[in-house]
Every structure is written in structure tokens, then in C-alpha cells.
Amino acid sequence: MILCDCGNTNIKFYDFNILRTEEVSEKLNFPDEKFFYVNVNSSLDSIFEKNLNAINLSPYINIKTKYKGLGIDRQVLCNYLEDGIIVDAGSAITIDLMDKGEHKGGYILPGLTAYQKSFLTVSNKLQTKLKPTNIDIIPQNTDEALSCGVIKSIVLLIKSLGKKKIYLTGGDANILKEYFEDILVDKYLIFKAMREIIKEKYLGL
């Protein structure tokens, strides 16, 4: 069974622990067989809809929430987890709070790469690569100040949501995982969530 997660920057195809990633473009290398997908990139909607092998999971997802405009990728993860804090650290960082099967709301922040690029719009002297750093001390140089300023703000925001288990996924998960104790890191989390939806709705298993 092939699963597809299409974001704003990259598209990922997953087939039993084999993950293929490519940049989003109008010429996507789709599988030659049936696959299930979720897509947050509206500019590619028509491309998916024209592909007879593509099955959209969006109509099969329904979560309890008051949040307006919750992205389909976030809906998939929230549908999968009854309780906890879900953090997807990708092009953007999304943070969602689930409590007893209900989505209580969430936050959206720039991803770490977006933060890095934004610093350069202020000054070319702020060129750096954000990396894990000690957020319990006052930084003593510019690189530490940038990394600490960004990472600490993200970590404290997540911790402000309470003492729930944290489910962390996305390309920058390995940077953020160092700052939490009760945490599960899983780069395949969205695909596990998609498989659960397919199983529940008897779509292909």
C-alpha cells in the first residue's frame, strides 16, 4: 500500500518503511498503482484529482474541534491520537493539543529554516544554522543567541500546554527532541495515522 503526504515544499511517498521524497513541482513522479494521499498544497489539487490512481483521504476524516481551517495533515494526526501534544516540525511548526479525543486548538510557527531565512532580511551578519543549544543559560555569542532565542520560544510554548505526552514528527524533530522527557519521536507518524484511517473506513486493507 502506497501512501502520499504532500506538503508545501516536499511530497513524500511511503511504502512499508521505504520513504521517497521529492520537491513539489507540477511534474510529480506518481506511482503506477493505487495510492492514498493527503495534500495541503492547493495548487496541486487538480493534478491529484486527474490521477485515477489517487485516492483522497480528506472526505474520511472528521475530528471534534472548534478550530477553523485546520490543515488536512494536522487533522490526520489529531484523528490518530486521542490525547497528547502533537508537534510537526517541518516547513512550518504546528502544535496541536488533543484531550480525550477532542482537538482543543493549536499554534503555527515558522519552521527552523524559515527562521534562519528571516534573520537575513534583518542583517547579513545574522547568517547561521540553528542547532541544539543550552536554553537555560544567557547566550554569549550571536550564533547561540539566535539558536537559543528560537528554540527556547518553541520549547516553552509547547510546555505551556501542560504535562501531556508529546508526539514529535517532521524534519527538525531531532533538534527539538532534546528538550522534552515524555516524548515519542516518529518520522512516519502521519503515515501510521493514514493507515489507521484506511483501516477504519475499510478503504484498502
Automatic annotation (TrEMBL):
Keywords associated with the record: ATP-binding, Coenzyme A biosynthesis, Cytoplasm, Kinase, Nucleotide-binding, Potassium, Transferase
Entry protein name: Type III pantothenate kinase
A GO biological-process term: coenzyme A biosynthetic process
Top-level taxon: Bacteria
Molecular function terms from GO: ATP binding; pantothenate kinase activity
Cofactor needs: NH4(+); K(+)
Main location: cytoplasm
Subcellular location(s) of the protein: Cytoplasm
The keyword Nucleotide-binding is assigned to this record: yes
Family statement drawn from the similarity comment of this UniProt entry: Belongs to the type III pantothenate kinase family.
Subunit (UniProt): Homodimer.
Catalytic reaction(s) noted: (R)-pantothenate + ATP = (R)-4'-phosphopantothenate + ADP + H(+)
GO cellular component, one term: cytoplasm
Organism: uncultured Campylobacterales bacterium
Pathway membership, UniProt: Cofactor biosynthesis; coenzyme A biosynthesis; CoA from (R)-pantothenate: step 1/5
InterPro entries: ATPase_NBD, Type_III_PanK
Record CDD domains: ASKHA_NBD_PanK-III (cd24015)
Ion transport as UniProt keyword: no
